[in-house]
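User: Last request for today: this protein with zinc ion, please.
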Amino acid sequence: MAKIVRSSAVTANVLMPGVRMRCPACRANGNFEPILQYDAATQTGEILGLRRCPNPTCSALVFFVRDRAGALQSFPAERIDFDTKDIPQGVHDAFEEAITCHAEQCFVAAAIIVTDFRPSR
Ligand SMILES: [Zn+2]
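Assistant: Here's the final one, the structure of the complex with zinc ion:
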């Protein structure tokens, strides 16, 4: 059964002045900026909205939800830092997929990818 959520519009950056996170696309840390005039505040205390990566070469969009306790969740999810420089393409692709699984809290899938990785010859 679908959950009905009721909300009201609040000026962006008032209840949620900063969305600081690591970009899921470019992995740069930054204060994600609003792209719309309003966020949504639910009757149960969550704040929802859209933000954009401050890196001008990226500008990735993320949808965020901050719960009543202040925990921030983004879609796509924030990824752990991972330096891709000087890594063979096959290893890079496997780790990239594992990191995406980890970010989406699919921990078993992330572990299987890492433990099952065999570099191609
Ligand atoms: Zn970015």
